[in-house]
Design goal:
By secondary structure, the protein is an all-alpha fold. It is about 75% helix and about 0% strand.
């Protein structure tokens, strides 16, 4: 392997956290709730933060928040989406609302299962905690900048 190949694989984690922060700030989430999520993360951990978001929001905000954070962690930690559901492609228009509710519950469980798997490696868990803490801090700064 040549030196140039190694350099290409390096990721600027601060920039990646800032990108996630910008994405989270673009969601329909208030500064207070985002600050509360950050406090839960800092005091209780990643799993508790996702539970807080799931309890606080029953909408696209929750789904987008979880999707962005989980995708970010998978990308940074090099994890493939190991919790894919074979039924993700199935869609029945007749049961659209019921299907969406079941899918939302299933997505919630998949995110929490992902965090449980992450917790099996303490180094990765602490690394993910630090990255999410930084990203949520950036999200708060993005919201403050929007307010002007």
């Amino acid at each position: 392997m040549q030196r140039g190949e190694i350099v290409e694989k390096l990721i600027n984690l601060d920039i990646e956290c800032a990108k996630l922060g910008r994405e989270l700030a673009s969601l329909d989430i208030k500064e207070k709730e985002l600050n509360d999520a950050l406090n839960v993360l800092e005091e209780q951990g990643i799993y508790a933060m996702f539970l807080y978001i799931q309890a606080k929001y029953k909408s696209n905000v929750k789904n987008d928040f979880q999707k962005h954070c989980k995708g970010f962690l998978e990308h940074i930690l090099g994890k493939n989406n190991q919790t894919n559901d074979k039924n993700d492609k199935d869609h029945n228009d007749k049961d659209h609302k019921d299907h969406d509710d079941k899918r939302e519950d299933h997505d919630d469980k998949r995110v929490l299962e992902f965090i449980k798997q992450l917790a099996e490696n303490l180094d990765e868990l602490l690394f993910a905690w630090d990255l999410l803490r930084r990203a949520l801090s950036y999200a708060l700064y993005h919201l403050k900048a929007k307010e002007g």
